[in-house]
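Can you give me the bound-state structure? Components:
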Amino acid sequence: MIQFAQVSKRYPNGQDALRNVDLEIKSGEMAFLTGHSGAGKSTMLKLISLMERATSGQVIINGKNLNKVKRRKIPAVRRDIGMIFQDHRLLFDRSVFDNVALPLMIAGYDHREIGRRVRAALDKVGLLSKEKNTPIMLSGGEQQRVGIARAVVNKPPLLLADEPTGNLDPELSAEIMKLFEQFNQVGVSLLIASHDLSLLAQMHYRTLVMKEGRLVQDQIDDSPGINHGEEFHERDSDMGFFTKDGLDDLPDENSVGDSSGHHDEY
Amino acid sequence: MSIDSPSGASLNEGASLSARFKMLLRLHKIEAKRGLNDLLDNPFSNFMTVLVIAIALALPAGLQILLDNGKTLSQSWDGASRISLYLDITSSQSQTEQLAESLRKNPAVDRVNVIHPDQALKDFSARSGFADALAELDSNPLPPTLVIQPKATHTSPEISEQLLVEFKVLPGVEKAQLDLDWVRKLHALLELAEKAASALGLALGLAVLLIVGNTIRLSVQNRREEIEVVKLVGATDAFIRRPFLYTGFWYGLFAGVLCWLILEISLIWLDDPVTKLAGLYQSEFSINGLSLPQSLQLIGVSCGLGLLGSWLSVGRHIRNIEPR
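Here's the bound-state model for the whole set.
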């Protein structure tokens, strides 16, 4: 799903944000990215979402070499990636519904389809009753959940989260993480940047530690029952969001890797 | 989700071509409404913008109306290009009538008036106040005169001059005269004014583009954050451009209608004094306003300028906004 090969990034001001990073995150894998601020976490996410370009090396996402993606093709790449931000980045002059519907409107969906999918996504994050509110009327945790609904409504195979729990108390953070785990269980790949070490300690997932632009530790927690990528194939999901409401075409449903075949590349 | 589709777009299975087209229409409706709401959200400053555009358009359009009226007026003064032929003083009455008759058959000629020397002398002595002095004369010094009125299609200075040359060489014609000077001046003046109107129209059209462009630039900057967000969720430049183009279009439409109103009110205001003035010259002349096609043309040009101004501006400025 995500491949970094000898990737370096030097900003115009001369700062080396990434130095020769090699990394592979498999399809269906959930991983955390941690390190001090300035260690290169954000730069990594920016390279994946094409907000920045690598100075050297190759970034390959969904089998697509981002070095070869022209400017006009960037939107198409981004539609395959759900992004979640610390500051949520919601549009405050529009309703919760319209915020979540944005990726679908951009992709040109039929409005009935949009209604169905948006409500399914809001239901999943527990905000169905607030679809008519504007984000300003919601709490921080609720705003973050709107951001998550927006990121998953288009059913992207990959979710990126940049400090998604940065402004939330531990209880809300745990809730958000539970949501992420549920998405992961149906085959969505996740890369979550966070410096919330206590949270990471509870999560038992692959953790990538960055320091001064290098990947200094790649630690896979081998606790039982943890999802390291491909093994979720066997698992039958009981995920409401992805199976009920007839949304059986969500990220290749429970059978990532056999129906469409594109996950097989990894 | 076909990630390896050739287009690279992740338009999931759901959106068929016709569904996408319908969605596009719906989006246009939504964006048109949003563009309109943007204008109405800030009525005062947007009204100012619309007013500035309307005035900028009203100046050349108003000048054009005045010119059109000036042309109609100059056509109604076709008498200006009358040609007077002074015949040989020895011409007999029958010779004079013969010449007049042959001139009447000329396709360029509308009317020929014959003024006989006796008649001319009578008029002259009556009007000049030299009746006593004239009575002293042995013979009538005035020649027979033909006053030729060319057809309306032959009143331009060039053609009049051609006719003059043609008539000068007719047998029995002593002298041909055409009071061209002031007709020529009037035509030159109108031509100059027309050029000036075009130049003014061009300059002010450009100004409208700049006004709309600048307003849209500010609007893009105000919505910078929103643009970053929609770019992050995969919006194309075309998608981002759309509401701004609609805003430009609405500016143009409102300005066009307002400009039309300004012109109509000015014309109504001018009509009365013009009619009075024309009355003093025994003329039925009154100002012609904008016809329906002209009105639609005005509003159409205004909409076009609004759209073009925003299109020129928005493309450049949204390109510079990249999510951070």
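A couple of observations. Chain A is about 30% helix and 20% strand. Chain A touches chain B at residues 49, 51, 62-64, 69, 72-73, 75-80, 83, 89-91, 93, 102-103, 105-111, 113, 150, 154-157, 249, 251-252, 260, 262 (CB under 8 Å).
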